[in-house]
Amino acid sequence: MSGGGLQVKVLDGVSRVPEADWDALVGEGSPFLEHTFLTTLEDAGCVGEGTGWVPCPVTVWRDGRLVGAAPAYMKGHSYGEFVYDWQWAAFAKRNGIPYYPKLIVGAPFTPATGERLLVAPGEAVAVREALLAGLRSLGQQAGGLHILFPTAAESEWLESQGGMLRLQWQYHWENQDFKTFEDFLATLPTKRRTAIRKERKSVPGLRIVATENPDPALGPWMYRLYRDTHLRHTGADGYLDERFFELLFQRWGHRLHTVLAYDGDTAIAGTLNVRKGSRLYGRHWGALREVPFLHFEVAIYAAVDWCIANGVSVFEPGHGGEHKRARGFTPRLTTSNHWLTDPRLDAALRDFCRREAEAVRAAVDEG
């Protein structure tokens, strides 16, 4: 596909693009769209044939130079997306309408907002339009196109181009120029302050250590925590494998942040987070033994403490978790935009999304 001096190409992996060229488009944007993160998923086999995530990034070129890209995946299921559409798929099946495969644009297994249509500086209008045209053309070969967790501005533009808007929410912690953890607690009601102090005192004798750029040897151990958590909660191993964790710690250590709980010299629990600029993203948690309130200490309080000490503006601990509201986190809207190939399904879901959005906005306003 070409036009206006632009050429649109669908590739079979982000690895087909030189790292410097891809990351020049990402710039200061989401770390989860960086070349290393996406190609590590490819190299470890977490995406690819047989996984239900087939990479098919859509790229735009001008005179042989990469000027636009979108991380796209042809999906055979809805796992690992965090924009929950199981009811949509069931509705389509009841009405004899194909729903899978579907074209997804976003970071696999990662419910974090960021630009999805990556465009070189000075190329915004024409390249963004070419990217969307390429994605919509590819989506027409499937049950639909789904752009997950775009920025608010991007989502608004996508809606203006006909993409139905769907709203969800997450809980984020936002730094109000706090100097200490107690400064943060002072913004909460007395009852919540008391409860948090009590929870933090419930894990005595454990040493909590937060570290940036952790030892690469921690990769397999962090996988063990990740796998154990998934087995206990879902009965399955999880989406990611040990090779992914090994490679990520080797290749991407400058983005990684860990909070580990030690009993003596033995680490018994931890979280793996990602930092870029002034944002910290919570990713994976696990514990080798049950300790009351240890999850809150390691995954929330110690991370918030570290953010305050290191000037981090926003901590996004991941999707879901009503318990975060009581611990000082604020509900924030997240978006997705959708085009369904079958016009009957598209019309029905647009009506559903409009009604759903009213309930979502009301829930966020209560927070």
Detailed description of the structure:
- The protein folds into two domains: 2-169 and 332-366, Gcn5-related N-acetyltransferase (GNAT) (Aminopeptidase, 3-Layer(aba) Sandwich), CATH 3.40.630.30; 176-312, Gcn5-related N-acetyltransferase (GNAT) (Aminopeptidase).
- 40% of the residues are buried.
- The chain has helices at residues 19-26, 35-43, 86-94, 124-139, 152-160, 181-185, 190-200, 218-234, 242-251, 294-309, 343-366, and strands at 2-3, 6-10, 53-55, 58-62, 65-70, 72-75, 102-105, 118-119, 144-148, 164-174, 207-212, 256-263, 266-276, 279-287, 314-316, 330-340.
- With 367 residues, the chain is of the alpha+beta class.
- It is globular, with a radius of gyration of 21 Å.
- The longest helix has 24 residues, at 343-366.
- Strands 3-6-7-9-16-10-15-14-13-12-11 form an eleven-stranded mixed β-sheet. The protein has a five-stranded antiparallel β-sheet with strand order 1-2-4-5-8, with helices on both faces.
- Strand 13 and strand 14 form a beta hairpin.
- The mean pLDDT is 95.
